Amino acid sequence: MSTPLLRAIDLCKEYRLPRGQTLRALDNVSLEVMPGEVLGLVGESGCGKSTLGRCLLRLTDLSSGAIIFDGQEISSLGERAMRPLRRQIQMVFQDSYASLNPRRRIGDLIAEPLRVHPDENGQKRSRAAIDARLAELMELVSLPASALARYPHEFSGGQRQRINIARALALSPQLVVADEPVSALDVSVQAQIVNLFTDLRERLGLTYVFIAHDLAVVRQISTRVAVMYLGAIVELGETDAVLHKPAHPYTAALIAAVPEPVIRHGTSLTLLRGDIPSPISPPSGCRFHTRCPKAEARCSAEAPELRPLQNDHAAACHFPLMDSL
Amino acid sequence: MRAEAPLLEVHDLSVSFRSRGRYIPIVEKVSFSVGSREILGIVGESGSGKSVTAMAIMGLIDAPDVKITGSARFRGQELVGLPQKAFRHLRGRDIAMIFQDPMTAFTPVYTIGWQIDEQIRAHEALSKTGARARTVQLLGDMGVPDPERTANRYPHQLSGGLRQRAMIAMALSCNPVMLIADEPTTALDVTVQAQILDLLRNLRHNYGSSVLLITHDMGVVAETCDNVMVLYSGRVAERGPGEAIFAQPAHPYTAALLDSIPPLTGPRPARLPSIAGSPPAPLERPSGCAFAPRCHYAHESCVMLPPLISYGSQDVACVLPVEGRPLPPRVVADVA
Amino acid sequence: MIAALFRRLGQTLFVLFGISVLVFLVFFATPGADPTSRIAGKNASPETMARVRHEYGFDRPLPVQYATMMKKLFITRDLASYVDRGELVVPEIVQAAPVTLSLATGGAVIWVVMSVVMGTTAAAFRGTLIDRGLMILGLIGISIPVFWLGQVANLITQARYHDTWLFSWVPGLGYIPFSESPLGWFRALIIPWIVLAVLFIGIYGRVLRADLIAVSGEDFMRTARAKGLSPARVLLVHGLRTSMITFVSLFGLDFAQLIGGGALLTEVVFGLQGVGRLTYQALSNLDLPLIMASVMYSAVFVVLANAVVDMVYVFLDPRVRDAR
């Protein structure tokens, strides 16, 4: 087994709110990302998946915990020490338009990281080198070279997301954290971008942390999946294992709630009771017990640990759905 | 099939906006009907004109630069060209509407209960206490816990799911015969979406209402609707019973749209079948079939605008069935 | 709620303290300028200088000087103007305040009512001639200088047409206290009120119209229409209430600065002995004690007005209520 490219150990993130309350956005989250794999992070709003993404990128400071990237502890690095690592870890966000300065040409936007960061030999890049790299990037994301001279508003949502991807890839990063990169796109365009992510990984040997609320998209792109609920990982494992034989009742409910474009007779969607509780005052014990169909007395008293069940498949549940294993 | 006349019958509805001296067609000659207690899904991507169609039917587009032509008969009454004053008595009472984002769809400065009371009292001579009693009853029916207290809360104090339940309660407050739901679950989480869809599905039994469900999500349509109309670039691509369309889409756009949704079960394709390019802007809409530039099956005859023809139980705006080479049935992994 | 109120009060006091320190430092601790000679006036005798220096503690450290000044201002209230030969400053302000308060309050009532009517009407008839006409009227109101309008009003009501039935009720220039004759108070002030309000009606009417139009594109306005409410109800109940935020913030600032002496021109034109005029006199004579007192006085009102505006927000928007 190779060593993980990224390790997150016991990450906690708390936000202080007025009136002395605290919001625990991340609660002891640990995970590993192997080189070349795609780790999908799924969950509903407030589950902490975006916070986790931002913490991994060091866009948000942790309350406690450690992040080890490529053998180096990065959670305590200052902004200056972090800079050379920034080129190794890049990001793509949901809102393709807000991520692009509307008053600058695409060529300038993509070239910016190339101008700021020196090349592999520590030299400032020449104009010609930058232009050559720009042409290469446009080819990678299947945009015409003429796009470089145009402005963001001249492009459709899908094309803008390609531009964002090109910018993220400019410095040849090892890891790309993508936060809901396709959820604002129409279905027909979404498929193009999902395919682009897959192609780029194969061509460039990239590693992704892919954050999305859409289970089907995550299943399509990920090799492993982490399911989050109220700030904690409740299930983690190979994509097929987690999505076809879910061990945590929440994962099962999440899968069952997805409406599929197929007419089903007699069966209707399995309904979970109630809403997602507020992360400001999460339930005691297992955070899912208030909505869980299998909850017992123990669940409200004792918080389950994320423990391995089979191979790499782990779930945080006192009563995992064993029959499916 | 139906003995009675449909509740809503839309015929050749077109909506154009004026820009720089000329009219740009957003919706072109859309026709459909909604029967009593029927759920019709209007599906399309952004810019397909699905929301504009609904707004036109509701008379909510009354800008001077907009031209609405065609006909929309609701219980025999013509809605196109109906004066706003007459519309007012229809809206909220006979046809109600719910919107995508329940956060912004409620006025932030009044309580939920106040806003529902307001709608009831706008249409019925009811005392404040009488209206509130019905509001609380409705909120309870919609599965809102502790409806009396929730009625006194402000929109921002509720979760998205509760807000959407309150929105539906408000829409149902005057027992409308038709509910237009514009992307009612798009802003919600999946587990909450499932609850809301369940609620919508049961409206016809509990309230006898028809639903016009506007969405971009084929899954939502499959779970909820009896009949489906697929819009592409402001025109009807295909319409018919959901069962038929999901089993064998007749329009290449419908087929491609269904294919491009990543499956949740069955084998994972290495690549998703995707539709190249993006839908045309209204100004750049081809005079022929609007989907032709992105279509695998495009050929010479596609430069002419294909008429909507009947094919089995479906109506489809494509030349393929006429030319004797309809699309094959859809292959779907077994959902066991 | 009570706790929030107290916190607010504490903040207000703190701000006032800061302002008083700042003003004190600017006027009394400017290097190279001896405040003693300023306070004592030009050509003061050495005895007077010595007396002033001792009285204000200018021979002692700055904090003591500040404390002395504050004591004279707020506790013993015997701070005296040296320019005006020992006239006590605090009573002077106490005398001028009701005049300005009457002027600003009456003007504010007129401008709030009129601008709400104007802005709402313009928004309701958006794009029509009525809208355009009202907006041009507003622009004219903004452009007319107050002193000119005041003079014209005086010319008409005091001179040219004073003897006709139309304006014979207008009393001569000056202030009539409310306690003396409420009707006289009203008659003396109604024309200054209108003159003062014209500018603000123009500004507020235009701001409100713009806000109403912005809010009309909001989802909840569409919901309100979809509920089958009348256009008037949609505009007034759902639109106006939610678009009052800018209006209220502007109002707080403008009203406070008027009470703090900003209505100077109106006061001068109509012969009203208000705070504006007092401050003006103090500044032109460099009457330091009076300047100190009047600045403190206006600061109190600006800070108070801000506190009131915050309270009104809480009333207007429940989201603000929960955010505290």
From TrEMBL, chain A:
Q: Which UniProt keywords apply?
A: ATP-binding, Nucleotide-binding, Transport
Database matches in PROSITE patterns: ABC_TRANSPORTER_1 (PS00211), ABC_TRANSPORTER_2 (PS50893)
The ABC transporter domain sits at 6-255
Supply one GO molecular-function term: ATP binding
The membrane topology of this protein is:
Peripheral membrane protein
Localization of this protein: Cell inner membrane
Family membership: Belongs to the ABC transporter superfamily.
> Which protein are we looking at?
ATP-binding cassette domain-containing protein
UniProtKB/TrEMBL annotation, chain B:
Q: What is its main location?
A: membrane
Location in the cell: Cell inner membrane
Query: Pfam family of this protein, just one?
Result: ABC_tran
Q: Give GO terms: molecular function aspect only.
A: ATP binding
**CDD domains linked to this entry:** ABC_NikE_OppD_transporters
Annotated membrane topology: Peripheral membrane protein
Q: Which UniProt keywords apply?
A: ATP-binding, Cell membrane, Membrane, Nucleotide-binding, Transport
**Occurrences of domain ABC transporter (ranges):** 8-258
**InterPro entries tied to this protein:** AAA+_ATPase, ABC_Ni/Peptide_Import, ABC_transporter-like_ATP-bd, Oligopep_ABC_C, P-loop_NTPase
What Gene3D superfamilies does the database record attribute to this sequence? Answer: P-loop containing nucleotide triphosphate hydrolases
- Superkingdom of the source? Bacteria
What PANTHER family would the database entry show? DIPEPTIDE TRANSPORT ATP-BINDING PROTEIN DPPD (PTHR43297:SF2), OLIGOPEPTIDE TRANSPORT ATP-BINDING PROTEIN APPD (PTHR43297)
UniProt similarity note: Belongs to the ABC transporter superfamily.
Q: What is this protein called?
A: ATP-binding cassette domain-containing protein
- What species is given as this protein's source? Acetobacter fallax
From TrEMBL, chain C:
Q: What is this protein called?
A: ABC transporter permease subunit
Against PROSITE patterns, the record matches this protein to: ABC_TM1
Q: Which residues form a coiled coil?
A: none
Domain ABC transmembrane type-1, residue spans: 97-313
**Family note:** Belongs to the binding-protein-dependent transport system permease family.
- Pfam families assigned: BPD_transp_1 (PF00528), BPD_transp_1_N (PF19300)
Q: Which organism is it from?
A: Acetobacter fallax
UniProt keyword Kinase, yes or no: no
User: Where does this one sit in the cell?
Assistant: Cell membrane
Alphabetically sorted, this entry's keywords are:
Cell membrane, Membrane, Transmembrane, Transmembrane helix, Transport
Membrane topology, record value: Multi-pass membrane protein
Is the keyword rRNA processing in the record? no
Organism domain of life: Bacteria
Q: Where are the transmembrane segments?
A: 12-30, 108-127, 134-156, 185-204, 245-270, 290-316
